[in-house]
Amino acid sequence: MNKHRVALTVNDKAVSMLVEPRQSLADALRGELGLMGTHLGCEHGVCGACTIVVDGDAVRGCLMLAVQAEGAEVTTVEGASPAVGLSEIQAALREFHGLQCGFCTPGMVMVLHHLFTENPSPSEDEIREALSGQLCRCTGYQGIMNAAKAVSARHGRLNDQPTQTPPDTTGI
Amino acid sequence: MAIGKPFVRVEDERFLRGEGRFTADYALPHMVEAHVLRSPYAHAEIRSISTDQALALPGVHAVFTGDDLPSDLPPIQCRIPTHGDLSAYLQFPFARGKVRYVGEPLALIIADTRAIAEDAAELVDVDFEPLTAVTDPSAALTEASAKVHERGNLAGRWGFDLGDVATALDTAAFTASDRFSIQRHSAMPMETRGLLASYDAGRNLLDVYGPTKVVHTNRNMLASMLGMGEAEIRMIEPDVGGSFGARGEFYPEDYLIPFASIRLKRPVRWIEDRVEHFAAINHSRDCVFDVTVAADAEGVITAFDVKLVCDMGSFIRTHGDVVPSHAAASFPGPYRVRNYRIDAMTVMTNKTPTGTYRAPGMFEANFARERAIDRLADRMGLERAELRRRNLIQPEEMPWHVGTESVKRPTIFDSGNFPLIFERATQAFGWSAPFEREVEGWKRGRGMCALVEPSGLGPFEGVRIEVDQHGRVQIFSGSSNQGQGHETILAQIASEILTVPMEKVRVRHGDTGIITFGGGTYASRTAIMGGNAVHAASTGVRQKALGAASRKFGFPIEDLDLREGAIWHGMKNEPLASLGDMARMLMPGNQEILVTPSAGNIPDNDGLVVTSYVRGVSAGAAVFAVHLADVLVDPATGETKVERYMVACDVGRQLNPLIVEGQIIGGVAQGLGGTFLEELSYNEEGQLTTGTFADYLMPNVYDMPPVTSLVFEESPATTNILGVKGVGEVGPSGVAAAVGNAIANALSATSGINTLPLTPQRVIEAIGFEVGA
Questions:
Q1: Residue of B nearest to A102 (CA)
Q2: B549 Cβ partners below 8 Å, 6+ apart?
Q3: Percent of chain A whose predicted confidence (pLDDT) is above 70
Q4: Distance CA B587, CA A113 (A)
């Protein structure tokens, strides 16, 4: 099958990849660029594990073809993470036990990363709406919601305080 | 103290940064990829399979079919005892002569890429002679039914008959009877299955990445199927995106992918897609109970009389008949009912084979029993909690022997104060508080489920602990981890006993290369079995370090103490040596702790290393739990909303409250999925009609009510040193029962609410609406 050269920016770095026209952007990010943080849970656009940010929109990496990304600016979970440690959103997800197996987690991080970029202090309804396209089989979403609500509250405007107090994380 | 603290999980950072390493993230040089060609028919003769065209496609390396497998290859064995001999129903890696379910493997295509392998699959020509599909278990038992297997569709019929049920029924003041159905659904972990097998032909060594759950058992099964030595195969568990019982069993691919790697002498990777997963993973539940419950005039339950039919699908897999077996063994629940009879039948149909899914048999039995008890209470005019209260097993009756068994192990509740927890649960929820029965046209109802969840089953678990010269502690565990948080809780136990900070403890697991024997992760067992193995090994390390320090420094061992990760003598201000120092002294060949060193006097040190295998207690540890729910129902549409949900349970002792709560809430979410949404439904041709996430609905963030967990540590387990009870399956176990009872209560329904999932249609049918009328 003929391959096409696609030039784009991924996590602030100009890259170029040679892809088949049928290759999804998620597959290309993983297979061509080695960015394994973007996970494929269903490959039919339902679970949201492959969510990435493309030109400012949260999109499903499995539903976009790599050839459509010519000239695009893409952020993956690797790009949404600090050089070391965790971003505020990531730290909150850990603090509120918003993940268990961790497979859906990069999608959750990206959806919240996108939400908080657009709106630093979203309401509970706005958070829920943002997360509504993501499936998590482990947590029951409560920890994820509490984490996002806590971040929003720290940014000042959310009246709904998390229903759970942060755990004591001091060591022995 | 580290045990009991709500530490944030040590494994979280890598997942949050996208640095987890799941099977699909592994690759090896010269690796090729596999695709499994699966049957499109539920039941058909295979006349021929032609692979020539597929092989001719550029990029295709091989197409394997049943003809390529050794003629004496045994079927995939069932790894646990079953009721009767079910060996006639075992599955071979490829269909032989016939296909028996949609999704049964027919051929394995190996190509440069997964995409080319899928292209090639289209070119494999299979000539089928379709046969009548058997899809309904009751029809399967009729004389006229087609046969799924030669031996017949009734795989097993067995049961228990305790006490005198007939007399109890004859003399009962009240009885209630109904049929309760629990639909076929399953675990649906977010990561599909996958394997990467790499064969080193020169050394005859095989590495397999991707197994989980019971890696040592799977390794041994594969060794015997391949005719290899057990230690010549290494199974390595990567990060695993959820199991919930289904993932990690030995499936056909667990033979086929290593087989292909051996034949091609190249690494072969197979990553399942989601549509494939729906057809290939073990399905579960799929039970019908006919229940009669009897009581005397005082509200003492005198008998349970039960018939159970369980649809096993087309083959008996590695789990055998555990779902109906656990359901039958535990049906009486937390009640002191001595007259109990169950007649269980396991039936073969042309559907995907079944196995376990979180709280196997228990979610099902709890729904049937607790709905029947509500019926009985309504009939008696007795308050529903009061009926339960009058029948709970009392603390002085512990340990309670139910009189049943499952997988050849007696059903025993080791400990518990059921009445105490029951009272605390109902009080905390406000069970007796009056509530508005109607809100803006919606009706409100309240429901509960009392249950006992077994945990910590299985014969043994093993742990090796190694301390290095820097005082770093490595735990090599025989158990597996699929997201539960074992890397944190096992580290907590070692951290406490060895008095080292959490940062110095690392947990490795799920790898046959790191410990000789391992039990694995199932039946809510890792906190108990893995935890107690860590306890034993850590205690051993502590003793070994103290003993060596005693010899080195010449103080009696009882005058020495291990704290802050170092050995101290009496009230001295400085420690004698750190754990790391002791590890160095105990290295083989090191003469530092010889009293009189000499050249010919090499000490037989074997490191600050201890391996411990702890034996399981056959009945494990029993968790008593009460689920409580308030539900709103729209009587016009059948729409339901769970307003609030509480799980109260006694877990004996919590290792990490954050993780305990997470297990409970996440479990409730899965229970709600099984109660309202999830169904693997088949049409008459045996085609799965809910084979994508667009058709098979799982709870999303809008479907979750606020869930509260109320965790008690009243009755430590008597069957393990830590006193812990497993919490992994308490969450889903009672959901359908509590929610079903709340819906029936809202509607004052005297019939219905007995078939899962509780769709709007089934809900309004319970109040006499004819759909479409």
A1: B15
A2: B555, B560, B567, B576, B577, B582
A3: 90
A4: 49
Reported confidence tier of residue B619, pLDDT bands at 50, 70, 90:
confident
Please report which confidence band the pLDDT of residue B622 belongs to, taking 50, 70 and 90 as the band edges.
very high
Please check whether residue B220 is in contact with residue B246, taking contact to mean a CB–CB distance below 8 angstroms: no
Structure tokens at A3: 């391959």
> Which residues are paired to B234 by β-bridges?
B207
- Residue B566 pairs in a beta bridge with B563, B578
> CATH for A88-154, among 1.25.40.390, 1.10.1060.10, 1.10.150.120, 3.30.450.20?
1.10.150.120
Residue boundaries of the structural domains of chain B: 12-131+192-240+247-280, 284-392+400-405+413-457+618-765, 460-615
Asked if A43's CB is within 8 angstroms of B496's CB, the reply is no
The answer to whether B591 and B613 are in contact (CB under 8 A) is: no
Q: Is the pLDDT of residue A141 over 60?
A: yes
d(CA B698, CA B680): 12
Q: How many CB atoms lie within 10 A of CB B386?
A: 13
Token pair recorded at residue B304: 């349970």
Are the C-beta atoms of residues B453 and B625 closer than 8 Å to each other? yes
The β-bridge relationship of strands B340-348 and B301-313 is parallel
| List of residues 6+ apart from B139 with CB closer than 8 A | B145
CA-based nearest residue in chain B for residue A127: B701
Where are the extended beta strands (E) located within B39-145? 44-50, 60-65, 98-99, 105-111, 125-130
Closest residue to B693, CB basis, from A42, A78, A101 = A42
Q: Where do you find CATH 1.10.150.120 in chain A?
A: 88-154
pLDDT of B770 above 70: no
Name the residue type at position B703: D
Say yes or no for a CB contact (<8 Å) between B693 and A168: no
B603 in helix, strand or coil? Answer: coil
Is the ipTM value over 0.90, yes or no?
A: yes
A167 and B657 within 8 Å at the Cβ level: the answer is: yes
How far is the alpha carbon of B644 from chain A, nearest alpha carbon, in Å? 13
The three-class DSSP label of residue A11 is: coil
Q: Tell me if chain A has a CB within 8 Å of the CB of B563.
A: no
Residue B17 to residue A77, Cβ atoms within 8 A = yes
Is pLDDT above 60 for A171? no
B5: nearest CB among A95, A135, A168: A168
CATH of domain A4-75: 3.10.20.30
- Cβ-Cβ contacts under 8 Å, B18 against chain A: 35-38, 76-78, 81, 106, 109
Q: Which chain A residues contact residue B192 at CB under 8 A?
A: 41
What's domain B284-392+400-405+413-457+618-765's architecture?
2-Layer Sandwich (3.30)
pLDDT, average across residues B538-565:
96
Residue A171: list chain B partners with CB under 8 A: 2, 7, 501-503
Return phi, psi of residue A60, to 5°.
-85, 115
Average pLDDT over residues A2-14: 97
Nearest CA-CA partner of B157 in B346, B422, B429, B389: B346
**Which chain A residues are closer than 8 Å to B22 by Cβ?**
36, 39, 103
CB-nearest partner of B240 from A101, A133, A145: A101
Say how far apart CA B538 and CA B516 lie, in whole Å.
18
Instruction: Tell whether the model's pLDDT for residue B537 goes beyond 50.
Output: yes
Question: Is residue B17 a contact partner of residue A78, using CB atoms and an 8 Å limit?
Answer: yes
Q: Residue for token digits 């954050």?
A: B658
Distance from CA of B502 to the nearest CA of A (A): 7
Average pLDDT in the B482-494 region?
97
Give the model's confidence band at B769: pLDDT under 50 very low, under 70 low, under 90 confident, else very high: low
Q: Do A39 and B665 touch (CB under 8 A)?
A: no
Q: A29 to chain B: nearest residue by CA?
A: B25
